[in-house]
């Protein structure tokens, strides 16, 4: 399974790579990005509770891609896939997302931690070599200072955020106790094509879909809460960068744009791009909503020269175009 040491930077080329949650939003884009590095094989594991086959349709018929409809919590199921496919690297993207934790908090916590613990135990048992675990900026809670670096205190506002902190600590504990090859990428808010637009969706796809249906956008609270939005292509570039950099081992590394935008400004920008001139509906604040986020990406820049390349306006236009095409396609099919 091992690949010879080629210096401080390592490549996915020639490796057998598994992505759990690979049919999801960020996971499917990560699949596309990984394939650019020409691995010997890409194995996608997803239970398709939120992931969609449409997200990986360009990969489905490739001889070097295999898809498992499987729950990443299943120890025997995942172990068999690892052995059958001789996996070297896992990118763990499988997760129950934040909005679901407001409705099903216990399930969110137990599932997210169980997935990570299962994968770490299989790593400890030598079933693969390297784990890149995907965290979340929600672990930080509302910014105590900006930009928020990796030393920012972890102050979870939601069961989802708590589950991500717990999962991160499980991964770090396995690294420290057993000397495993583990690194953690911590993305801030990611947006772009394929983000879930149905139940448990984020504000960008929800706003786009509402306008496409002729409905008014919705703002929760006063709309002055801010987020650091990163276009999905830049997020997955950062996640691959965490793998490629040997010095990232044992580290939590922020992946962000380093800029912040208020929710009300975001919705107004979407409305302007889409030509919407109606009003905006204001609703009470959502429970657990963080008030401010702005990421510090100095460590990612230092470790592997990470630089986000897609401006917010450019990424937003690409995202709106994609959802508009999908919306029209669904109306005509």
Would you write up a description of this structure?
The protein is of the alpha/beta class and 333 residues long. The chain is built from ten helices and 13 strands. It has helices spanning 25-35, 75-85, 98-103, 105-124, 159-178, 203-212, 232-244, 263-274, 298-304, 312-332; strands at 16-20, 41-46, 65-69, 89-92, 130-134, 181-187, 189-191, 218-220, 226-227, 229-231, 252-255, 261-262, 281-283. A seven-stranded parallel β-sheet has the order 3-2-1-4-5-6-11, with helices on both faces. Strands 7-10 form a two-stranded parallel ribbon. A two-stranded parallel sheet has the order 8-13. Strand 5, helix 5 (159-178) and strand 6 form a beta-alpha-beta unit. Helix 6 runs parallel beside helix 8. The chain starts with 15 loop residues before the first strand and ends with a helix. Mean pLDDT is 94; it is low at 1-7.
Concise overview:
This protein has 333 residues and is an alpha/beta fold.
CA-atom Rg in angstroms = 19 Å
Q: Which segments are poorly predicted (pLDDT under 50) over 5 or more consecutive residues?
A: 1-7
Strand order within the widest sheet? 3-2-1-4-5-6-11
Mean residue pLDDT: 94
Separation of the first and last Cα atoms: 45 Å
| Helix-strand makeup class | alpha/beta
| Shape type | globular
Largest sheet: 7 strands, parallel
Number of helices, where a helix is a run of at least 4 consecutive DSSP H or I residues: 10
Percent range of helical residues: 25-40%
What is the number of strand segments?
13
């Amino acid at each position: 399974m091992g690949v010879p040491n080629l210096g401080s930077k390592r490549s996915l080329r020639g490796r057998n790579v598994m992505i759990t949650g690979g049919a999801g939003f960020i996971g499917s884009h990560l699949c596309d990005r990984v394939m650019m590095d020409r691995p010997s094989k890409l194995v996608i594991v997803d239970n398709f509770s939120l992931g969609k086959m449409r997200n990986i349709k360009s990969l489905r018929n490739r001889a070097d891609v295999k898809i498992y409809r499987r729950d990443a919590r299943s120890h025997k199921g995942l172990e068999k896939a690892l052995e059958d496919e001789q996996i070297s690297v896992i990118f763990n993207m499988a997760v129950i997302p934040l909005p679901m934790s407001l409705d099903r908090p216990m399930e969110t916590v137990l599932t997210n931690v169980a997935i990570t613990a299962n994968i770490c135990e299989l790593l400890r048992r030598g079933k693969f070599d390297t784990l890149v675990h995907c965290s979340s900026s929600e672990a930080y809670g509302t910014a105590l200072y900006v930009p928020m670096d990796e030393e920012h205190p972890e102050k979870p506002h939601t069961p989802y955020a708590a589950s991500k902190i717990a999962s991160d600590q499980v991964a770090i504990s396995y690294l420290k106790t057993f000397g495993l090859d583990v690194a953690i990428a911590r993305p801030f808010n990611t947006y772009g094509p394929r983000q879930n637009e149905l139940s448990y969706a984020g504000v960008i796809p929800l706003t786009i879909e509402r306008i496409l249906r002729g409905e008014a956008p919705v703002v929760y609270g006063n709309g002055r809460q801010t987020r650091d939005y990163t276009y999905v292509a830049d997020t997955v570039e950062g996640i691959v960068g965490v793998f490629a950099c040997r010095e990232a081992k044992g580290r939590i590394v922020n992946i962000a744009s380093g800029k912040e935008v208020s929710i009300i400004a975001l919705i107004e920008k979407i409305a302007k791009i889409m030509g919407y001139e109606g009003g905006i509906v204001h609703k009470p604040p959502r429970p657990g909503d963080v008030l401010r986020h702005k990421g510090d990406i100095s460590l990612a820049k230092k470790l592997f020269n990470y630089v986000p390349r897609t401006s917010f306006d450019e990424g937003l236009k690409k995202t709106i175009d994609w959802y508009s095409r999908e919306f029209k396609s669904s109306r005509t099919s």
